[in-house]
Amino acid sequence: MNIMDKIQKEVRQTYTPQTLYNTMHISHIGYRGANQGIATASDWLHLLRNNRGVVHDPWTDTPITIVELGCGNGKLCEFLKRQSMDVTGTDIFDNEIVYDRSLYKFVKHDLTQTPYPFEDNEFDYGLSFDVLEHLKEEYIAPALQEMARFSRSLIIKVSCSGEKPLHLTIKSPGWWFDQLTENCPNFSWQLVRNFERIVKKGDPAMKPQSTFADARPLPDGYSQTYAPLFYGKRGAIADED
To answer: Residue 237: which pLDDT band, with cuts at 50, 70 and 90?
Structure first.
């Protein structure tokens, strides 16, 4: 029995977000070892710029302030800290035996609870990678509004596939873009990349979707889903090299 089947069988009626993610971070090798922020860093790292609009130079620039929402295993926070950035991570899971969070600032917080424990305009950048789809739909708007309150720029990646009890809001890239523009009205947004995922039907890790259309035929037994990466900035987004 895989970990998802075990969770759904044993805690379907009784789990809380805290117990669910305690289980995943302790028992699931993907949660402990993988990190979507690092996996996609080549697509977004160049967006981190100093107040002159120049790509961050760790040798001469004042450290960029960054908060990662749903930092999970903390590998991205550690990476950014080693680039001389001022990094804060927040997550519902805070077991120090599993993860050493001593390299960066850490705040335990449930993203369904607002307001978040940060001051207005506290951070240059707010980051979130494959996190928001884990919230129920009614929590998406408040979460985005909070992120826009304390971040001057936002880099957000979401997954448009998955299944309960982990992925609770499974929507199209267009739906997510609408949420960003509606709940962060002072931000300009662009789609940096729309990752395509071709998945085998019945794969327990990624439930196939029937809502997306594509002109290219897929082999029998496979379907196509997406994982869009968005960049938002207060005011206009200039063409930046």
So the answer is: confident
